[in-house]
């Protein structure tokens, strides 16, 4: 989910997963996410290898990229649901 976000929207520097939900019937996964400490979005995935989509409010200001940016998560601070931190600086 984090990799999808940084490769499809420009400017994500910090991603914090606030919760995680898996629908046992459909297999869909969803997570409430805060981006750059100010944008609240929800990321959905159709199963572990499924299509990903993002729902957000009008105040979400990251620009959707026309092409996949092919970025890694190396320079992105990520706080996973449950408190694990990747990229703590």
Outline the secondary-structure elements:
Blueprint: H1 2-8, E1 9-10, E2 14-17, E3 21-22, E4 29-35, E5 39-45, E6 52-56, E7 63-64, E8 77-79, E9 85-86
Parallel strand pairs: 2-8
Antiparallel strand pairs: 1-7, 2-4, 3-4, 4-5, 5-6, 8-9
List keywords for this structure.
89 residues; mainly beta; 7-stranded mixed β-sheet; two-stranded antiparallel sheet; 1 helix; 9 strands; 8% helix; 38% strand
Task: Please give a structural write-up.
The chain is mainly beta. The chain has one domain (1-60, 75-80). Helix content is 8%, strand content 38%. It is built from one helix and nine strands, in the order αβββββββββ. It has one helix spanning 2-8; strands at 9-10, 14-17, 21-22, 29-35, 39-45, 52-56, 63-64, 77-79, 85-86. The strands form two sheets. Strands 2, 3, 4, 5, 6, 8 and 9 form a seven-stranded mixed β-sheet that branches. The protein has a two-stranded antiparallel ribbon with strand order 1-7. A hairpin with a 3-residue loop joins strand 4 and strand 5. The radius of gyration is 13 Å and the shape is globular. The model has no long low-confidence stretch (mean pLDDT 90).
